[in-house]
TrEMBL record, chains A, B:
The keyword Transferase applies. SUPFAM superfamilies: Isocitrate/Isopropylmalate dehydrogenase-like. Pathway: Lipid metabolism; phospholipid metabolism. HAMAP family: PlsX (MF_00019). Signal peptide: none annotated. Keywords: Acyltransferase, Cytoplasm, DNA-binding, Lipid biosynthesis, Lipid metabolism, Phospholipid biosynthesis, Phospholipid metabolism, Transferase. It is found in: Cytoplasm. This is Phosphate acyltransferase. Its EC number is 2.3.1.274. InterPro entries: FA_synthesis, Phospholipid_synth_PlsX-like. Belongs to the PlsX family. The gene is plsX. Gene3D superfamilies: Isopropylmalate Dehydrogenase.
Amino acid sequence: MTVQPDDTRANAGRIVISVDAMGGDAGPTAVVAGLADSASINPDIGFILHGPEDELRRLVARKKILEGRVDIRHAKDVVTMEDKPSHIMRNGKGTSMWSTLDSVKKGEAAGAVSCGNTGALMALSMLRLRKLPGVNRPAIGVLWPSRNPQGFNVMLDVGADVRADARDLLQYALMGASYARNGLELARPRVGLLNVGTEEHKGHAELKEAHRLITDHADAANFEFVGFVEGSDIPGSVADVIVTDGFTGNVAIKTGEGTASLISDLLREAFKYSPLSRLASVLAYTSLQRLKKRIDPRRVNGGVFLGLNGTVVKSHGGADATGVSAAIKLAFTLAQSGFAQRLAARVASTGTLSQDDSQSAQADDKDNK
Amino acid sequence: MTVQPDDTRANAGRIVISVDAMGGDAGPTAVVAGLADSASINPDIGFILHGPEDELRRLVARKKILEGRVDIRHAKDVVTMEDKPSHIMRNGKGTSMWSTLDSVKKGEAAGAVSCGNTGALMALSMLRLRKLPGVNRPAIGVLWPSRNPQGFNVMLDVGADVRADARDLLQYALMGASYARNGLELARPRVGLLNVGTEEHKGHAELKEAHRLITDHADAANFEFVGFVEGSDIPGSVADVIVTDGFTGNVAIKTGEGTASLISDLLREAFKYSPLSRLASVLAYTSLQRLKKRIDPRRVNGGVFLGLNGTVVKSHGGADATGVSAAIKLAFTLAQSGFAQRLAARVASTGTLSQDDSQSAQADDKDNK
């Protein structure tokens, strides 16, 4: 590891974000371009950048705005998209991803950003940062374009774990509400539990149990529980936070993304159809750009890992400079609001709810009734 | 029940569809308008219509095109959207829904269409028509706009049952492939199993088992198994049939619908933004209409109940005349192709795969290897 006291001193007073330069589809060039975008917008961000030192030094030197704001840490290995999480947990020590998380663990950075392999990043994050006391399964939360005034809803889990029992879903509700308070500035977020219908008799037994648990904890945790919601409510306006297991959540957001992408392609085709429609597309250009910006997935790039001792933002693997910059901004915003500390306090205040401890969990339920 | 020999005779030579006039949000007026739309396009359809006789007679009399083509059957009760399926199974005998299915059971109609309560319709369908031998859980299959040349993919189950084990998923693959052959005229459909990633190590144990079972049966059942697919592939081009459990499928299609509806509203807003964009929207009118038609959910209105002795099409509860007419067209197309008989033959040919009979199922697997 290369320690660069000059750069670090230069970043004094700045909020430092630890960034993994490797593992994304577009390589370190896109990541460094994203750093430059962020640095030019926000004078209060500094960076620790992880990857092959010589290459990164060259890339950073080309961006004037990054002068004195990037501390480069050498890491020779890269986690690829094909690596199995279990393999990386045993052999990941020399990777840029490991090094990126290490800076958060050591307190040198207020948050981490990586475009790499999601499964490996979650596995290493759990290994290096550890789960918050009381959290059984960490979750990945994303912002999703919605009809709500804030423009986005929080959705979790979108793929940290394919399973979630009733107590995990309660934790997700607590963590999602905390994220909405700090990331979307909603004082009292409305939380919905994803199901196949809004009637209370619908769905798995596990969901009915989760419904009961979340109802019991809503007041103490300062959120409003709106009960069961449906897939159509993910981009809707009845809830600000959508809680579900990582299997369903992952399928749902990918279906939404696929549908949006199909419509956008068909729209482009429609505008190419005739000379008149081509003229229309020229006239509508600014309106369509505005729409595109409103639902541009790059603008809300970044899944936040919730339930760990530290903030980790997973950027989309295919992120370009704009996407990387959005993920950095998210990590910065959460660091600035002291999100990690607030979330830890929130989870701790609802008592121990680990699966192995249903006795104390039941006691906790009673206290909240 | 009112028997009307005159009308029935008039429908000789026509394919008769049994239609529930009640239970939809828009009431019998929209249903009768849908009948009229269908009748004017297709001279080969006749109808048996179920509901309050006097009201239906008045509505039908207003549509010249329906003269001599509608056999009205009196049913005084209606299944509401709030009725629990279990209640309807015990007390549904006087309802228009019951009567609608009865016409299929008795062989008077080649298929049934209802806009009513999905859960009640599935429960009554299972009670009246019975499951096909070898089918454990019937499924609801829908057509979903996609990038494939046929314009649509088949997706199932979208909500007949919130659970599905590996053998149910195999049945869904067989039934979905059969539907794609008869509904979309694909000789050798490509079937994908929905998961959170395409790698074979991903997902629940149940999914890995289903992957193995479907691989073993693909050749004999004359479809191509493309393995695991993701949410983004539901509107994609890597598979023609997407297989999943009813919980995940229901959330996925509702998320897709919600996303499409949000984008369409934002698009409308974008075009209202300035005088220039309003002008653009006028010029782009026909192109946008073409796009709208391509992804209009009313055009593919109708979930088909698969795995029963008879064809039942569930129309969207909020369907208007266009939606009802699309659902009727679907029932007609499937009836014409002898779908119910072909599906029964297909399921029978893969042997008994009930959950209680894993011994014989394993033997069946070996035979197919």
